[in-house]
Structures are given as C-alpha cells and as structure tokens.
Design a protein that fits this description.
By secondary structure, the protein is of the alpha/beta class. The chain is built from seven helices and seven strands; from the N terminus they run βαββαββααβααβα.
Length: 207
C-alpha cells in the first residue's frame, strides 16, 4: 500500500492590510468549509517568513494562497505551478512576507527537503494601503474560485475531503474564531471614528 503524500495548504499575508490578507482568508475559508485527512495540514502562515521552513520541509505537496503582484488587473486570480512559484513570490515585493517566503523555499531546497509539487494560487490586490482594512469585494470574490482551484489540484494526488460540519473544532494551526473574517469586519470602527492613514496629529508638516 502506497503512503499518502504529505500535503501542506498554506495561507500567507497580513490581515491588517486590506487585500494583503487574501492568503490567510482563503485558507480560513477552506478550513471552515472542508475537512481533510491526517496527511493534510492547513496553516495560517501569516507573516512568519523563515519560521515556516520546518512546515515546508515536511510537505511533499505545497499549496500556497497569497496576494501577488502579477501586474494584472486588480482582482485577477492566477495559478502558478512548479519551478515558477519562487519567481512569482518575489515578482514585485509588496510586503515583508514575500521575500521571506522565497527564502523559506531556498532554505528548504538547501536542506534537501523541498516539496516535490508546488502550487501558488494568487490574486492581484486592489488595495493594500489601508491599515485595519479588510478584503476589497473583487478580492473577496476570488476566495471561492481559489479554493476550487486548490481542490482540483489536490484531487490529482488522491486527496479526499468532506464538507465541514458545523460545530466541529477548528484546526489548531488556524487563528481563533474571534479573528475570522466576519468578526474582523464587524468589529472594525468606521473610517470617521478611526483614521486609517496614520495619526493625523503627525500628518501636518511642522516648521
């Protein structure tokens, strides 16, 4: 009997900066909608960068969700596979986590434990410069098709899943439910109550 491949499904990004949170929100939605076997790990990688290397070294198959500057129209979803993944992870640096993840892949390769199969599912962001902001509608609409692309890819490795049943425990590698997308959006102050472009007391040019 053949051993099942070890699958890592990873979302990276920063939920505090609008569309930068796409990867984390995508893996969150996947975890809330589906349940996988013990050979699959779902992980909110956030902006951990190099600290993800042990997780990447563990995986035979790596699927990454992320906001990526492909130079395409905002809200465009694009999949990249195999050796092209590291190139697109750093096509244009948008935040600290992208360069960090390139380094994660390079270090895993150096250590001789590089995933045999890689898939990057990225979305071209609409807005990043909105501290405390959430996903823009065009990017949020990409979550479901991004998940469909991931499931189609994983099916090629014989990965099975079942719909998530309400009330079951969330995976330990995902944040507390208090940080889920709907709670995050509901708890955010209005723009009038919370200035989003820095502290206005220091915005004026001083003589």
């Amino acid at each position: 009997m053949n051993e099942q491949p070890k699958i890592l499904i990873l979302g990276i990004g920063n939920v505090l900066w609008a569309d930068e949170g796409f990867g984390v929100r995508a893996v969150e939605a996947l975890a809330e909608g589906y349940r996988f076997g013990p050979n699959c790990r779902l992980l909110d990688g956030g902006t951990q960068g190099i600290y993800l290397v042990d997780q990447v070294r563990w995986a035979d198959v790596l699927v990454v969700f992320d906001a990526v500057d492909y130079g395409l129209a905002p809200g465009t979803l694009k999949r990249v596979e195999g050796a092209e993944v590291p190139h697109f992870m750093g096509a244009k640096k948008m935040s600290l986590h992208q360069t960090g993840f390139q380094e994660v892949l390079a270090l895993a390769d150096l250590l001789g434990e590089y995933p045999g199969h890689l898939l990057l599912i990225g979305v071209q962001p609409v807005e990043l410069d909105d501290f405390g902001g959430s996903l823009r509608p065009e990017v949020k609409a990409c979550i479901a098709p991004a998940i469909a692309l991931a499931l189609e890819y994983l099916a090629g490795f014989g990965v099975a899943w079942e719909p998530h049943e309400g009330g079951r425990e969330r995976p330990l590698d995902l944040p507390d439910a208090a940080l889920r997308l709907d709670a995050y959006e509901a708890g955010r102050p209005s723009e009038a109550a919370a200035w989003r472009l820095g502290d206005p007391r220091f915005a004026a040019v001083r003589p």
